[in-house]
């Protein structure tokens, strides 16, 4: 698997803070209800905190009450990469940044949320950087 942006592990470790590194590069998960964007309603674009690629927008963000920022669709379907994840004894679908391969979260579907896709991209706040729309 190759990405447009690839860096040695020590470079990622130097550029990201420990919390960002643990999630983006080691597929960690921030504790529920602690992320800075969990309840954010600000209009804008959410970019990858590792490489800056635009991934999600506030238009597709919805209140899932699950403890992490939730989106029903990415900004562009090829902005993210979906990978089968069988870790932790579960079968889930991992969501990665398609440009740098960093871990963002997981996507779930068929949960019954009243959204156009019935999908929930459950994304760690620490993987994202919000750029508010200009007023
Ligand atoms: Zn990225």
From TrEMBL:
UniProt GO MF annotations: peptide-methionine (R)-S-oxide reductase activity
Positions of transmembrane segments: none
Keywords: Oxidoreductase
Catalytic activity: L-methionyl-[protein] + [thioredoxin]-disulfide + H2O = L-methionyl-(R)-S-oxide-[protein] + [thioredoxin]-dithiol
Enzymatic class: oxidoreductase
Transferase keyword on record: no
Alphabetical list of PROSITE patterns matching this protein: MSRB
Its EC number(s): 1.8.4.12
Boundaries of every MsrB domain copy: 9-133
NCBIfam families: peptide-methionine (R)-S-oxide reductase MsrB
Identification of the protein by name: peptide-methionine (R)-S-oxide reductase
Gene responsible for this protein: msrB
């Amino acid at each position: 698997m190759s990405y447009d942006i690839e860096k040695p592990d020590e470079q990622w470790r130097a550029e990201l803070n420990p919390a960002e590194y643990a999630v983006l590069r080691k597929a960690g998960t921030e504790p529920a209800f602690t992320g800075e964007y969990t309840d954010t309603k600000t209009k804008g674009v959410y970019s990858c905190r590792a490489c800056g690629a635009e991934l999600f927008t506030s238009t597709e963000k919805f209140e899932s009450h699950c403890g992490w920022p939730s989106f029903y669709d990415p900004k562009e379907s090829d902005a993210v990469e979906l990978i089968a994840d069988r870790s932790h004894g579960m079968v889930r679908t991992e969501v990665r940044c398609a440009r740098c391969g960093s871990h963002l979260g997981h996507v779930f579907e068929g949960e019954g949320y009243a959204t156009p896709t019935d999908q929930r991209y459950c994304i760690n706040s620490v993987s994202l950087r919000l750029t508010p729309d200009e007023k």
